[in-house]
Amino acid sequence: MSTLIIILFIIEFLLILNYFIKTLFNKGFTFKLGLSFAVLYFIFIPIWILIITGKVDLVKIDFGWTSLTDVILEKDIKASFLLILYLLGFIIYLYLFNFYKKKPLPEDKIEFKPNLKLYFIIYFVSFFIILIGSGLLEGGNWYSSRHSFLEKYGVLAVFTSFVMNSAKILIISSIIYLWTDNQIKFRTFLIYILTFTLFDMFFTGNRIYLFATFAIIGLILFKRYPLKILIALPVLVPVVFYLGYFGAIFRHIRGPLFKEGIPTFKVFSKAVERAIHLDPPNITNFFLNISESVNFNVIYNIFNRYDETLYGATYLKPLVYFVPRSVWADKPESITKIAANIFGSSSLVTTVIGEMHMNFAYLGILILPVALLFIEYLFLKMRLDSPIYNYILFIMGILIVRMPFSDDILIYIIITLIFYLSHMKFVFRNERLQKT
Length: 436
Known about the structure:
Elements: H1 2-26, H2 31-53, E1 55-56, H3 60-63, E2 71-72, H4 77-96, H5 116-134, H6 142-180, H7 186-204, H8 208-224, H9 226-231, H10 233-257, H11 265-278, H12 283-290, H13 294-305, H14 317-320, H15 335-343, H16 351-360, H17 364-382, H18 389-402, H19 405-422, H20 424-435
Antiparallel strand pairs: 1-2
Helix pairs in contact: 1-2, 1-4, 2-18, 4-13, 4-17, 5-6, 6-7, 6-8, 6-18, 6-19, 8-18, 10-11, 13-16, 16-17
């Protein structure tokens, strides 16, 4: 039975990889490209570890105190077949669900300049509200300060976080567009993008946006220079290893980094030394950490141990988000909070598969491709005809796999509102061009 599971996993991997490569070279950056990239990265890296070693160990240093368990290929037969069925639904969506297509822009392309000044203003205003409100400037632990800020200010705190993340995506997409449109040189682009994304990761502790940025840059370069990239692999592999390793151990760095307020270089160095001591370089652990394999463990634990049904409650959150919990005490919780309460943590990522199963049980297998089609339709319908939306949609594809559905919807709505208000002339002119 284990052999059959391995064969089916490999077939699904090849089908998704085939779709990903064809889409990258034929269509470029799309929502589906982001989705397929995220599944290959966050789901299939742990699957390959499961195939090669026969198990995916729980990262004990971070989650040993939870009730989550290891994934063992020979024992988790039923859960593995469930995952295979969910991935089959994902493959059906990729290959067959192409009913909605956005009307292409006219060949007479209009010049576009992102409103980076406004994006930065929005980002830094929301950034400082969170930084001051969380008390990190005065010193504290990143995890507890962040939790206290969200608890104390409720809806306002969460909304501010969404605004900051929306502006962040606009900034990243805009800088990448300026480079690909030859409005800035590659060296200038690298300085801008690395300065911003590293600054953001350092102060917010969130690595997913830096990851998405590196993914886009890497894929652009691979698409432009595939042969050169393959030839340079002996040099690139160790560089990627150490960059990935630092990104992985940053979860150990960010916690105590602001213990005494804004950290000095000495404090940062000590935090790095502590992180390396807690999680020394190791090939297997490297792949487990960079793919955030605990999310894979969460999926299997949901399949094996969660026997309730939320009936779509977490998908309704965008509609009821602005209602304070003081008014509606039973307002639907985020899926990350629900999963954390079940398995004994403060927050756990379920991925799009885990959230679907917790809401609809086995029916989720059938609902998943339809839900993804609906999300794609919604995103494309709301999309404004700007070239930066190619990168925005790719990032949203990654976030849909990695983050709660409700958060992604709200972030995308805010992105579109910010863009629309800051580029009204561009939008109206674009609409006139499409009518001609």
